[in-house]
Design a protein that fits this description.
It is a single chain. It contains four helices and four strands, in the order ββααββαα. By secondary structure, the chain is an alpha+beta fold. It has two domains: 68 residues, Roll (Membrane-bound Lytic Murein Transglycosylase D, Chain A); 39 residues, no CATH class. It is elongated, with a radius of gyration of 25 Å.
Length: 114
């Protein structure tokens, strides 16, 4: 997990049912989202044509929440692994990883050659 890049995203719940919410005077997308257990992102996605909220509008929504999700991975190398996993502060950690990786590659090549 230390090699992952994270971001906070709107994630729909397992309940895929689409509900409707009536807009009241003074409502905002944020208030509607909090009241109905969804997110502003889901409201905008399901109601792309709504620019300004007006009393009496009906908005579609799905249950959703903001969650921390993996959006990508950092480049994986022995140096980057050493930077993230070397809790003891060993200055030679990356070199030791290179050595162990070379041993595994040599062993694999020997097994494949048989």
């Amino acid at each position: 997990m230390r090699m992952a890049n994270f971001d906070y995203r709107s994630v729909a719940d397992a309940d895929r049912h689409v509900y409707e919410a009536d807009v009241k005077a003074g409502d905002s997308l944020d208030r509607i989202a909090k009241t109905h257990g969804t997110t502003v992102g889901i409201l905008k996605k399901l109601n792309p044509s709504v620019g300004t909220l007006r009393h009496g509008h009906t908005l579609k929504y799905q249950k959703a929440s903001i969650q921390r999700v993996i959006v990508g991975w950092r480049q994986i190398s022995t140096v980057s692994i050493a930077l993230r996993y070397n809790g003891g502060g060993d200055p030679n950690y990356a070199k030791k990883l290179d050595y162990a990786l070379a041993l595994m590659r040599n062993r694999r090549a020997a097994v494949c050659a048989q």
